[in-house]
């Protein structure tokens, strides 16, 4: 995939609330290309009962297992498209034949939440060492999606057609970073503590409605 976005210019990024004067910038449209492999597997669970079938689809990028970028501050861009396709993706669904040409499916699109805790202690005295510890945990998330397909009944009809629609709820992969730091800058006196929590979104799949058809 080669992303191509229309430029948007003169977007206000700072105003008198957070700066001394209004600041404008152009939307960043430089995004990484995506190359990867998609694999799918389906299995008929109950072929005699509405042909209930389960399917699994996975996408794996070639360039890197995952690419994360929260973007520059005060640089506008198309929201969260910078790294949206730069990570593995997994979807699982179950479908059934409702009869009279109608087929229905429901599934989940998987994401995750990342929580990291970092503790840093800085020593500025000669012959002393500084230390840092980083702990992270990743929890799975999932957003549902639903699909409906209609196939015209006659197999021999040259005008046979298919119509389909898929609706997917949004999924956001959130990142929480908790930093606890201290620095001993005045000899052997007590260290100065500096703690803060940063929140960001690593990946975001927006709500989507897709329509299609074929002959």
Order of helices and strands: EEEEEEEEEEE
Q: What portion of the residues fall into strands of 2 or more residues?
A: over 45%
Q: Share of helix among residues? A: under 10%
**For the terminal residues, how far apart are their CA atoms?**
26 Å
Structural class: mainly beta
Polypeptide structure, described:
This protein is an all-beta fold and 215 residues long. It is built from no helices and eleven strands. 0% of the residues lie in helices and 58% in strands. The strands form two sheets. Strands 3, 4, 5, 6, 7, 8, 9, 10 and 11 form a nine-stranded mixed beta sheet that branches. It has a two-stranded antiparallel ribbon with strand order 1-2. The two termini are 26 Å apart. The model has no long low-confidence stretch (mean pLDDT 88).
What is shown here, in short?
With 215 residues, this protein is mainly β. It is built from no helices and eleven strands.
What keyword list fits this structure?
single chain, 215 residues, mainly beta, 9-stranded mixed β-sheet, two-stranded antiparallel sheet
